[in-house]
Design goal:
Pfam families: CBS
CATH superfamily of one domain: CBS-domain
Mean pLDDT: 79
Strand content: 5-15%
CATH class of one domain: Alpha Beta
CATH architecture of one domain: Roll
Shape: globular
Keywords: CBS domain, Repeat
Number of strands: 13
CATH topology of one domain: CBS-domain
InterPro entries: AMPK_gamma/SDS23_families (IPR050511), CBS_dom (IPR000644), CBS_dom_sf (IPR046342)
Radius of gyration: 23 Å
Protein name: CBS domain-containing protein
Distance between the termini: 58 Å
Strand order of the largest sheet: 7-13-12-11
Largest sheet: 4 strands, mixed
Organism: Populus tomentosa (Chinese white poplar)
Length: 429
């Protein structure tokens, strides 16, 4: 009893300190959860309590994203311009606004989808048709190069011999071509996952948002203001992890966050199921696997298949399209060469970045809290789990952590997804 009273006293002190001088909007949101946590029925499990707390908070309470990250791209923007916009604002994707939509259009008619780095790359490669077998002229060097990569990217597994097609010269020619400069974002609408996209209203619950980011594998969720017929906020997996980091010290967070990863069933993806690419394979194989398996990043392993030497994420597609000159001296762009070239480029232009600093790893004995703090401070989306010998045992993503915070009640979404158009059947990305 004495220990329980001491714990309550400590929690009261933390509550008072955070209430008097909250660290951030995320910390204030954490206090709302704390207040709801305190009045939950004692017989409920911690997860059931959190479900009830988050169900009681509207998604409108989530702190707004930085203005630099709530970017809209017009449908008549070229692919080259779209890549530049995404790269400059350090975002993976952005909603596309239909320039032909009337001023009084609803949000469904105002937006045509969400464009992302990987979608642009894969669309370019698949839209480039190989020359006719009967043709006696080989065509331009760009057409030949694009055709070779298209054939490789479209079927089967790329091998080391295919890496020759992904030389620096290829990407320099591609990014300077009229094909790349003149194609508009609206022309690749078939690459969008939703039409226009899956969004929340401001009145939807925090729990709904967390479930979409975890169980339904959405990396970001737009929040729509129906009155303004536009996006009011964009909640990402990263912003949720940042919120959790800001809640350290609160009772509801500590009751969950102090557990070891192994205690809450992490990693979900074990060694045998990790999607990986070998360092001598073409870098395009990595991006192809990301799209095929719908994962945000994959490890690069050595010939043994268990030692991780690097990591490639969807975000890194930008380095193929915005700085192709860094590969000019490479005979081919293997995954290994890609890492070497980009790290050298970033050290020269940016000083430090998660890409340059190498792999971030942990063990199953780390706590959830330690992992959250690491992910938030390093601004990364995944951590690789290794054993004492440094061998790969699994991977933990932001989505995995969120999925262990709440659970989906039976029949929770009901008809929520009715009327939402899924990925087009003829879409290749």
């Amino acid at each position: 009893m004495a220990s329980m009273q001491l714990m309550r006293k400590e929690n009261a002190i933390v509550h008072e300190v955070m209430q008097d001088s909250p660290k951030s909007p995320e910390a204030r949101l954490g206090m709302k959860v704390e207040d709801l946590w305190d009045v939950q029925e004692p017989q409920l499990s911690p997860t059931e309590k959190l479900n009830a707390c988050f169900e009681s908070i509207p998604v409108s309470a989530f702190p707004p994203a930085p203005s630099s990250q709530v970017i809209e791209i017009k449908s008549d923007t070229s692919l080259a311009e779209a890549v530049q916009i995404l790269s400059e604002h350090k975002i993976l994707s952005a909603p596309v606004v239909d320039v032909d939509a009337p001023e009084d259009a609803s949000w469904i008619d105002r937006y045509i989808g969400i464009v992302e780095f990987a979608g642009i790359v894969v669309w370019i490669l698949h839209q480039s048709e190989p020359p006719s077998p009967r043709s006696t002229t080989p065509g331009s060097a760009l057409e030949v190069a694009v055709s070779r990569v298209t054939n490789a990217a479209g079927f089967g597994i790329l091998g080391p011999e295919d890496a020759q097609a992904t030389s620096g010269n290829f990407f320099e020619a591609l990014t300077s071509s009229e094909f790349y400069k003149n194609t508009k974002v609206r022309d690749i609408a078939g690459s969008f996952r939703w039409a226009p996209f899956l969004a929340l209203q401001k009145s939807n619950s925090f729990l709904t948002m967390l479930l979409l980011l975890s169980n339904y594998k959405m990396k970001s969720v737009p929040v729509v203001d129906l009155g303004e017929a536009k996006i009011d906020n964009i909640v990402t997996q990263s912003s949720v992890i940042h919120m959790l980091a800001e809640c350290a010290g609160l009772q509801w967070f500590e009751s969950w966050g102090t557990k070891k990863l192994s205690e809450i069933g992490l990693p979900l993806m074990t060694r045998d199921h990790v999607v990986k690419v070998y360092e001598e394979e073409p870098v395009l194989q990595a991006f192809k696997l990301m799209r095929k398996k719908r994962v945000g990043a994959i490890p690069i392993v050595d010939s043994s298949g268990v030692k991780v030497v690097g990591n490639i994420s969807i975000r890194d597609v930008q380095f193929l399209l915005t700085a192709p000159e860094i590969y000019h001296d490479y005979r081919s762009i293997t995954a290994k060469n890609f890492l070497t070239a980009v790290r050298s480029y970033l050290k020269k232009h940016q000083g430090t970045s998660p890409f340059v600093s190498g792999m971030v790893v942990c063990t199953k004995n780390h706590s959830v809290k330690e992992l959250i703090m690491k992910l938030d401070s390093e601004k990364i989306h995944r951590v690789y789990v290794v054993d004492d010998a440094g061998n790969l045992e699994g991977v933990i993503t932001l989505r995995d952590i969120i999925s262990r915070l709440v659970h989906e009640p039976y029949g929770y979404f009901g008809d929520f997804f009715d009327g939402v158009l899924p990925l087009p059947l003829n879409s290749r990305v």
